[in-house]
Write a structure and sequence with these properties.
It is a single chain. With 662 residues, this protein is of the alpha/beta class. The chain has 3 domains: 2-250, no CATH class; 279-537, Aldolase class I (TIM Barrel); 539-661, no CATH class. It has 26 helices and 23 strands. The strands form 6 sheets. Strands 2-1-3-4-5-6-7 form a 7-stranded mixed beta sheet, with helices on both faces. β14 (425-432), α19 and β15 form a beta-alpha-beta unit. The chain is globular and about 85 Å long. The relative contact order is 0.08.
Length: 662
């Protein structure tokens, strides 16, 4: 019996379950090992915002003024003290309901709602981390719940999947378990390839575990458990490290070459509808490793421990079909480190030849020459690849060459134009501060984005991170980089890390407050989290001109409106307040009236216009409710007039079920 603890990943909000745990669960079940999942983020978010909000209130109040300054929440505490604990709990419950429980698309377009939830999460995580790491207080309900659930599962072994760090929440849970039981603890996950094998003895002691699985675990973990069940030393089991007689012992590191032999990922124990997204998104993997492996900043080749290994195209289609039917899911994110154009073509053609329908895919892609092919991109779009997340990194050719990306500016430009023409959503990942990058070269990236604004729906900007085991880390002198004892670094030319961070902050401020500087005539969004794949992949965003044309032509069953804003009661009147450009990055210009009074019919239209119903169904719903008071023709005309007025002012979004509408 294995109890597997899902990574907490407290640094950002997830929109899909953890692929690694799903693969390990299925691999263990294949070997007859019963596995119980202890949920990660979906659990602690509910604890923070709902179950443990009273304790959280107490933790905030107990902090000293000096503590508040260290975590920068003095103003926040003052604001909630004025409201009191009941209002605090009420508001937390409501924001959790809006962001997680209610799958109302309108909420996900309201930056005010989503950012408030994210900001509160960041505040609460900082508070918990402060108590755990600085005040050494581990007797917290958020910890106790984990411990209680783990022990109640009656495990013979406990496994922890680690994502990006030995973070304090997971560490303290392991420490508490060690104090309470003698159950063997196994750790593994994406973090493990970066562990310094020379310091394993210290790592075992400080991180409270008994066995370490480095790299792929689908074979290693079941084999380790079988050995322990038979009271055998796990000698000879690839990727497994352990301590015996005060010495660390380990085996060779291996990759899984026959990926087709792996079972389908098992998501049956996850809270699939408690992620911050209005539709289910499932991750899947069809390849491991990278065919390029030459980017100087990258460490993915270390994670995969080898070159590109792929599932067969036939197996890939099987996996997609299984996940769609088993979990009633249409939206999938490929977790392939590399998705070469040749493989993209083969998979797309296989999807089109299969019976798979109504599926939508997002994947990370290199801007390689093979994608400079309009025919290929059209085939991919037809197959369901509607979101491509391009590793652009920079708009400066010199910086790209320093990175050894193997791409050129002209090819990047052509691919983005052709992809956009194929009706694919283009998201570009960029970062600033690569060693040697000058401020003028960083500005070249911004100018590239401006020039290609018609073809880019979103950017994901960030700062350069000196990854362990990357080419630069292995030879820092070549890149004029000095790595310090605490893991930070300095560079002798180009922007310093501080200057790069300041450049990024200024850029984000510009994009957030005045995104019209980048945006031309298309609706855009500049989000650092992928919450809205289902909308932009399932439907087409209609311009006001096309919408009004569709309304005039009577194509009411194809149009799904979302009126962005909220209704407030004032003196027994319904006041509609549209949200403005600062509150949603999907609207270019919005000049809300100070207030707009809605009658009963208009209020009902607003309530129903949340993206889930077509205009035709909205009219039908309103008629069924008000047919004793108004004639059908009056209701029909009233609705159309209201929609025309709302959308001519750009106070909402409209979607079509067919790209052919535009």
């Amino acid at each position: 019996m294995l109890t597997l603890v899902e990574p907490s990943i407290m640094g950002y909000i997830l929109d899909r379950p953890h692929l690694g745990c799903a693969m390990l669960i299925s691999a263990c079940l294949k070997k007859g090992i019963k596995t119980t999942l202890i949920k990660g983020q979906t659990r602690y978010l509910k604890d923070m915002f709902v179950n443990d909000s009273e304790e959280l209130w107490g933790l905030i109040q107990d902090l000293k003024d000096s503590d508040l300054k260290k975590i920068n929440i003095a103003e926040y505490r003052k604001s909630i003290q004025e409201k009191g604990i009941k209002q605090f709990q009420y508001e937390l419950n409501n924001i959790y309901q809006d962001a997680i429980i209610d799958k109302n698309p309108r909420n996900y377009f309201n930056v005010r709602i989503i950012e408030k939830f994210i900001d509160l999460n960041n505040i609460f995580v900082a508070i918990y981390f402060y108590y755990l790491t600085k005040l050494n207080r581990s007797k917290l309900k958020i910890i106790d719940h984990y411990i209680s659930e783990i022990i109640k599962s009656n495990p013979r072994y406990i496994g922890f999947s680690l994502q990006g760090d030995f973070e304090p929440l997971s560490r303290i849970i392991r420490k508490r378990i060690k104090e309470l039981t003698d159950i063997p603890i196994i750790v593994g996950g994406a973090l493990t390839p970066f562990i310094d094998l020379r310091k394993l003895n210290k790592t075992f002691e400080e991180e409270y575990f008994d066995y370490l699985v480095i790299g792929a675990g689908e074979h290693a973990l079941p084999s380790l458990i079988e050995a322990l069940d038979n009271k055998k030393e796990p000698k000879g089991i690839a990727n497994v490290f352990y301590k015996k007689d005060s010495k660390i012992k380990g085996n060779d590191l291996e990759v899984i070459n026959d990926l087709d032999s792996l079972p389908y990922p098992d998501y049956s124990q996850f809270d699939l509808d408690l992620y911050m997204t209005p539709k289910r998104i499932l991750p899947l993997q069809t390849a491991r490793g990278c065919s390029w492996r030459r980017c100087t900043f990258c460490n993915y080749s270390c994670i995969s421990l080898g070159t590109l290994k792929t599932f067969s195209v036939e197996k890939t289609i099987e996996i997609i079909s299984y996940l769609q039917s088993t979990y009633n899911c249409q939206h999938f994110h490929f977790h392939d480190d590399d998705f070469p154009s040749i493989r993209a073509k083969r998979i797309s053609e296989a999807i089109l030849d299969s019976k798979l329908k109504n599926l939508f895919f997002a994947t990370w892609v290199r801007l390689e020459e093979g994608y400079n092919n309009e025919k290929l991109l059209r085939i991919m779009r037809k197959a369901g690849f509607t979101v491509l997340i391009w590793g652009m990194e920079s708009g400066s050719q010199r910086v790209l060459d320093l990175m050894n990306k193997g791409v050129n500016i002209f090819t990047m430009s052509q691919i983005l134009k052709k992809s956009s023409k194929a009706k694919i959503i283009n998201i570009c990942m960029i970062f600033f501060g690569f060693p040697g990058e000058a401020k003028e070269e960083a500005q070249e990236t911004v100018e590239f984005l401006k020039k290609h604004a018609d073809y880019i729906e979103s950017i994901t900007p960030g700062g350069f991170i000196l990854s362990p085991f990357s080419i630069i880390s292995n030879n820092p002198k070549k890149w004029n980089v000095e790595i310090k004892d605490n893991g930070s670094y300095s560079t002798n030319n180009g922007m310093s890390p501080k200057e790069a961070k300041e450049f990024l902050i200024r850029l984000m401020y510009t994009l957030e407050i005045n995104n019209a500087k980048i945006i031309s005539n298309k609706l855009k969004f500049f989000q650092q989290y992928s919450l809205l794949y289902f909308v932009i992949t399932s439907y087409e965003i209609l311009s006001a001109v096309v919408l009004l044309k569709c309304l005039k032509e009577g194509r009411l069953n194809k149009i799904f409106p979302i009126i962005l804003g909220e209704i407030k009661k004032k003196s027994n009147r319904n006041i509609f307040r549209p949200i403005n450009i600062k509150e949603t990055s999907f609207i270019q210009q919005c000049y809300p009236e100070k207030e707009r009074v809605l009658d009963r019919l208009e209020e009902k239209i607003f309530i129903l216009s949340d993206g889930t119903l077509s205009v035709e169904n909205i009219i039908l719903n309103i008629y069924m409710e008000f047919k004793k008071e108004y004639r059908k023709k009056y209701i029909h005309n009233k609705c159309l007039d209201f929609f025309q007025d709302i959308f001519s002012k750009n106070w909402g979004l409209c979607f079509a079920k067919s790209w052919r509408l535009s």
